[in-house]
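Input record, target 12 of the design panel.
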């Protein structure tokens, strides 16, 4: 045991009335919701990068956190892993997620970085065995180091493409070694700062080739997990190719990979793309590419990807409603891609941030389940489209313009507008919260 979280006991469910800050009010892991335990619906994961690698900087100032594991040695990487697994156990989260750069120091050469990664992965594997904490997904950091400043797969320099391919292979190997349930690709710098120096056609083709190689490697290695793309419209680059769920689907279709790759949808990224989280989730479900979620929130005033811990239960209820309508998670889960505010220096801040986020998700899930089980919202939706289920409605889907036009004239069709009943439905939803 390290002494980082000293005096913080394991967090347990104590119910909504408890005065204890270090307790769950809603997240009751074994409580059955719609036929299965809450923990199996939510499948919580902690993000290694925000909680253990981020130094607390912003564009106007550097590091605010002073963590005993900050530094570039393997001993410190092991200390970081020790503290990380202590946090996972205090919270009782079943999963974690990581990038290569979060867990190992960068070496002088690719080979040295790879040795560091393999060594720490062995150490993490041991910690996973001891604690039963599992890996939701692994990924490669192809955006922090300066070599990636003009992109990874979409870089104008083919040697950066090569370096990125080698890095992805090493991170897929690490994910497989740790029994990861998914492998994620977030194209942080796969985009452009200015079109003036960008060959968009080439960059798209390069990104398509890289993705094809990832899918091929999945089959070559027998990896059973899902390959997920995480859409984001911008930040760090001015424009990112994986803009949103619809754009990613178009890209997958273009390269014939729509049956191979799904999406990891992030709350804050959905908002940055001008959508709601539930919109992105509903679309992913309809397109058959729903995979996993990165849970967080942005500050609606700032317009930045502030990656705060989620706390808005009504928003989460709508998001989990779409997750439940998708049939719930299979390989995916709820990853807290969220970080503390830079003034939140204390170890207990890290715990309480997750406690609040987990509780807000649980409350959202319960509301979503009640909404779905009650069936009123779905009944209202079905009633709105009922005309499509009768013979005339069905026939429209196989008719042509001529025959439809002839019937409209012959039957003097003059449809009467009907209320969309939005306020009634909004009132209904609020009753479950
Ligand atoms: C950045 C982001 C990443 C990905 C993993 O906005 O969301 O942390 O989730 O690379
Ligand atoms: Co994310």
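The sequence produced for target 12 reads:
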């Amino acid at each position: 045991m390290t002494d980082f979280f000293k005096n913080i006991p394991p967090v347990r469910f104590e119910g909504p009335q408890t005065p204890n800050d270090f307790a769950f009010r809603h997240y009751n892991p074994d409580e059955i919701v719609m036929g299965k335990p809450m923990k199996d619906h939510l499948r919580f994961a902690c993000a290694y990068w925000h909680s253990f690698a981020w130094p607390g900087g912003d564009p106007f100032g550097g590091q605010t956190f002073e963590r005993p594991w900050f530094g570039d040695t393997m001993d410190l990487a092991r200390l970081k892993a020790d503290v990380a697994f202590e946090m996972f156990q205090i919270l009782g989260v079943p999963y974690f997620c990581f990038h290569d750069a979060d867990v190992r120091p960068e070496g002088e050469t690719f080979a040295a970085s790879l040795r560091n990664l393999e060594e720490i992965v062995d150490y993490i594997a041991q910690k996973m065995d001891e604690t039963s904490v599992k890996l939701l997904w692994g990924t490669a950091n192809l955006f922090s180091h300066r070599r990636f400043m003009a992109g990874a797969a979409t870089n104008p320099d083919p040697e950066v493409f090569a370096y990125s391919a080698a890095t992805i292979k090493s991170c897929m190997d690490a994910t497989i070694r740790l029994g990861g349930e998914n492998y994620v690709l977030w194209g942080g710098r796969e985009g452009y700062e200015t079109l003036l120096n960008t060959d968009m056609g080439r960059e798209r083709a390069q990104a398509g080739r890289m993705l094809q190689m990832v899918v091929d490697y999945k089959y070559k290695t027998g990896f059973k997990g899902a390959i997920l793309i995480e859409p984001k419209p911008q930040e760090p680059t001015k424009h990112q190719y994986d803009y949103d769920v619809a754009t990613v689907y178009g890209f997958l279709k273009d390269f014939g990979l729509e049956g191979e790759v799904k999406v990891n949808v992030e709350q804050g990224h959905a908002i940055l793309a001008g959508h709601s989280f539930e919109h992105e989730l509903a679309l992913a479900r309809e397109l058959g590419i729903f995979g996993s979620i990165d849970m967080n929130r942005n500050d609606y005033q700032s317009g930045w990807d502030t990656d705060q811990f989620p706390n808005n239960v009504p928003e989460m209820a709508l998001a989990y409603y779409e997750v439940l309508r998708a049939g719930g998670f299979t390989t995916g889960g709820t990853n807290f891609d969220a970080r503390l505010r830079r003034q939140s220096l204390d170890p207990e801040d890290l715990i309480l941030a997750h406690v609040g986020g987990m509780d807000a998700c649980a409350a959202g899930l319960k509301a979503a389940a009640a909404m779905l089980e009650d069936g009123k919202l779905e009944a209202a939706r079905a009633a709105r489209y009922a005309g499509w289920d009768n013979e005339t409605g069905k026939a429209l889907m196989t008719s042509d313009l001529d025959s439809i036009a002839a019937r409209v004239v012959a039957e003097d069709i003059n449809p009467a507008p009907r209320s969309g009943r939005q306020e009634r439905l909004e009132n209904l939803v609020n009753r479950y919260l």
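The pocket of D-xylulose (ligand 1) is lined by residues 99, 139, 184, 186, 230, 232, 266, 294, 305, 337 (CB under 6 Å).
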